[in-house]
Amino acid sequence: MKSAMLRMFLLLMCSMQAALGTSLRSMELREVSSRMTVVVTHRKKPIAGVKVQVVPEGSPNPVFTGTTDVKGTVLVDGLMVG
């Protein structure tokens, strides 16, 4: 399940890159908690109103759906640790 969560997160990041034409900063792969913060920016400016979903690999249903606030931030909470 740990690798599935990582793949899901990377898919989310790549989808955002493709949708917004943004670049990804290098990421350190490590175990994370059940809470994480996603920040969406373009040219260093926050983007509000972006829908963020976390969908487990092989599932059609998101385990989390949220929208970025005026700071381009959404708190993803309640995920499985891993």
Query: How many H/I helical runs?
Result: 1
Q: What is the typical, i.e. mean, pLDDT?
A: 75
Helical content (DSSP H or I, runs of 4+): 10-25%
Got a strand count? 6
Strand order across the largest sheet: 1-6
Can you write the helix and strand succession as a string? HEEEEEE
Coarse shape: globular
Terminal-residue CA separation = 8 Å
Strand content: 15-25%
Q: How is the main sheet built?
A: 2 strands, antiparallel
Low-confidence regions? 22-27
Task: Compute the CA-based radius of gyration.
Answer: 12 Å
Topology:
Layout: H1 2-20, E1 36-39, E2 41-42, E3 45-46, E4 51-54, E5 64-67, E6 73-76
Antiparallel strand pairs: 1-6, 2-3, 4-5
Q: Would you write up a description of this structure?
A:
The protein is α+β, with helices and mostly antiparallel strands. It contains one helix and six strands. The chain has one helix at residues 2-20, and strands at 36-39, 41-42, 45-46, 51-54, 64-67, 73-76. A two-stranded antiparallel ribbon has the order 1-6. A hairpin with a 2-residue loop joins β2 (41-42) and β3 (45-46). The longest helix is centred in the first third of the chain and has 19 residues, at 2-20. It starts with a helix and ends in a 6-residue tail after the last strand. The relative contact order is 0.26. Residues 22-27 have low confidence and may be disordered.
Top keywords for this entry?
two-stranded antiparallel sheet; alpha+beta; globular; 24% strand; 82 residues; single chain
Produce a short descriptive summary.
With 82 residues, this protein is an alpha+beta fold. Helix content is 23%, strand content 24%. Strand 2 and strand 3 form a beta hairpin.
